[in-house]
Structure formats: C-alpha cells, structure tokens
Specification:
CATH class of the largest domain in chain A: Mainly Beta
Oligomer: homodimer
Order of helices and strands of chain A: HEEEEEEHEEHHHEEHHEEH
Strand content of chain A: 15-25%
Radius of gyration of chain A: 19 Å
Amino acid sequence: MGKLLCACDSCRNKLCAKQISIFSSLDGQQLTKIADLIIHKCYKKGELLILEGETMNSLFIINKGQTKAFRNTQDGREQILHLFSEGDFFGERNLLRDQVSNYSVEALEETHVCLIHKHDFQLLVREHPDIALKVMEELCRRLDRLENTVETMGTRTVEARVSSVLLEFADKYGKPHPKGIMIELPLNREGIANYIGLTRETVSRKMSLLQDEGVIEMNGNKKVLIVDRTALERLAE
Amino acid sequence: MGKLLCACDSCRNKLCAKQISIFSSLDGQQLTKIADLIIHKCYKKGELLILEGETMNSLFIINKGQTKAFRNTQDGREQILHLFSEGDFFGERNLLRDQVSNYSVEALEETHVCLIHKHDFQLLVREHPDIALKVMEELCRRLDRLENTVETMGTRTVEARVSSVLLEFADKYGKPHPKGIMIELPLNREGIANYIGLTRETVSRKMSLLQDEGVIEMNGNKKVLIVDRTALERLAE
DNA sequence: CCAAAATCATGCGTTACATCACATTTTTTT
DNA sequence: AAAAAAATGTGATGTAACGCATGATTTTGG
C-alpha cells in the first residue's frame, strides 16, 4: 500500500502547473521553475492521501482523478466534508499555521497529484502575491459551498437535501445529454448519505421517488440522468 | 432607521485599526494612513448592516458589538451561518470578485463598525501582502468552524448539537466563574435553534435536560453557567 | 416599579426518518 | 461467462423531533 512515485510522466514535461488556476497569473518561465519544485504521486482507489490528525507539510493539487475529504464521527458514521477533483487543491490550512490535518482524504479512483512543499509554497506566495489572492478566491468558493450545505442540512425536508446534492453534482460533473444532463456519480448511495447527513436507505428511497416523478432517471448504480432540472431546483428550494 | 454616521469618536483618534488582527503586521505610520480611509458607522440592535442579495463595496470590521449573518430559507426558517463579534470582519467575499452578498447581517446589540472601501482595500492588499495572508488565516478558521458545524448537523443525536454550540459559546463568550464558566448568550432560544437547525422547543427541552443532569445552570434567559464542561464535551462527542 | 410584550417551558399527538431485515440487482473477479 | 462480492431497493416497525397549544416566566420600556 506504499505511496509510490508516479511511474507515468504524463505531466513532467507538460507544465501541469499551468492547468492550475492558482498559478494562472504566472508566465511560462515562472511555471517551469515551479514545475521543478513539484513532486508527483499516484494513489489507487481507496488509498489514503491524508490521515486525520497527521502533520502536513505539502500542498496537494489534483492533476487527475478525485478524492473525498471526511471525518470519522464518534458515533461511527463518516461525514464527508469536501469532494476534490481535477484542478482542486487541499492541505492549504496546514501551510499557514502549524496544524495537523482535520480530515482524512481518500482517493475515489486512481488519482494523480502534484505536491508542493510548504516551504516552497510560502516562498512562492511572497514572490507572487497574486497566488494568495487566487487561493483566497478558492477558499471563498469553498465557504460558499459549506454555507449552502449548512443551509440545506438545517432544512427539515430531506427531499431538498437530495435534490440539492444532485444539482451540485450536475453542475460539477454533469455532461450534456439529449434527454437532459448525465451525471457520473462520484459517490455511491452510502457516500451521498454521508455527504448530506442521511442514511443509505433514505437516499435510495428519495431517489426512487424522484425517478417515479420523472425528475431523474437512474442508469445502473453510477449514472443519473437529470430529466427535469427545473423540478429539481424547485424541490431544492 | 437610517444608518447614521457614528456620533461618538470613540475610535477616531485611537487607531482602531491597530486592534484588528488583519492589520497587525503594519506599523504606526501605516495604521494612521489606514485610519484616514476608514468610515465609522453605528447600528442599533435589530438593524440590518447587509441585506442578502445586495451589492457590496466595503469590508466591514466590528469595532464593538456583535452581529449574526443569516439567510431566510424558502420554508420560512432563518438559518444563521456566522456570529461576528469585536475584531471580526465580513463582506470580504465581495471584494475579490464582483458578487452580491449571500447573506444578511443584523446587529444583535448596538454595534460600531469600521468600513473600508473595496478599492482602498484592494490597494492595501497589493501594498501589504501580509494582509492577504491574515485574511486567508481567518478564512481558514471560518472553514474549520463550518466543517465542525456540518459534522454536528450530520450527526443524528440532537444532544450533541446543543452541547457543541454551548461549548462554542463557552470558548468565545465565556467568563470564569467560581462554579464554572458563565456565558452571556448572544442568541435567544430561537436564535440558537436557527444556528444549529433545530426548533426553539427542542433547544428548550434539551437545555432543561442538561440542567436536570447538573451539567449546566440557567440563570434567567440570557445566562448559562457551564458547571460540568467535561460532561458537555463527552455529550458533544 | 409596574404593565405590556417578549420569551421560554412543557404536555401531547403526529410525522418522518432511522433501523433492521432480506430480496434483488449490479459490479467485480476469476 | 459464471461465480462471488458489493451495492441497492423496499417493507415493517420504532423512536425522536416537530408542531401546536397553553401557561409561566423573564425582559423591556415608560
């Protein structure tokens, strides 16, 4: 289960840093310099990138694949806090203040990451203040999303929560489809339940209900077609 | 209900900016320059500082008093997202990208704020990158808190939610007391309920229960004495 | 200090979700 | 392609929080 250096050099000569929005203000030469600082790693599905409570010393940037950030609650549940995919970063909180990670991060599929060491990142930020602004922007986006999550979790109706999460997935992972928007779900039913604080069974039941109402169509376990987005938005309130 | 300029000059000549952590890296001369940019305003209890959906052009920093940030949900509830008190700032999200406010902010008591105009703030950040890092730190703290909120809201047991919020208040507003920690509650029962996604009645019932168990002692409606912090921490998990 | 208004406590019936159990389907493995 | 494993759907049942109603208490404002 060792975390091996990535065998593929899919990005070593391709300036993967260029793809990443927080570096978007830099020019080619600066990016080349950054590329030299980056270490690449590759994780298989189910592998842990970060363990809650662990001391961190790098910023993780996802080059390919996706991960979930979660905590194991005392009552045995798993609460998923964030989903990270291509271009997202995490571990930033431990770069400013010395602090252990407050969640675990697990690969949901084969995931390739770029690592920048804490020290290098701090130098970069000093040299290019624009990076700090980009990071701030992303943190604000993340706050927005969490505020929405808190709002929907505070809402009593469970239908609204399920609808919200489907809309979120549609925006993030959805692809156009002749009959609507096709989503390749990043999580199974239990994962969705752990993301919005419900049980697997309740998510199942509500999704079946949405299908009966003609709002969505399930295609196997991993694909969902949003047929009537408007209805979903109305349900999500 | 007009938002009048503050009559008191409690801070005009006292470099109120000095108190504010995001400016802590600046020296006296720089602070004086900032003080000139600041506009002071004063709001009475119940007044709105920001209305959800409003275009924003300033950063608000609380000099004295406290406020709640909230949204009115479609089902008629009010979801409180943040509590801000002395030294806290808000409105930052609208300074980076042009975006309307995604929550309303209301004064919970007489509140004095310092306002910095978007344009001035952006210049300041360019000139003093340390400010951006300080803002990032605060944003991270806020993310931490929201992540905790999501975790406790996802937890099924309501006792844990109530205990968590009491602990949060104890840390933020608690004062030492011979028998434990005395809290001056920033919110009434309904407010607490809207903060953690419960009903007023449920909060009432659970707090009565905690009192019966000898964990807390209520003193009128606005004061709570934490008698057994350990028990509360155990309940909060 | 008193009266009015606001806030809080609590009993009770109802509802919605959790929980358990098991059949079924889908996915993975060989 | 078949077998094994994993994930999902669904019914029955219990329970905990909601929602309403009402009386008690606390706070506010003159």
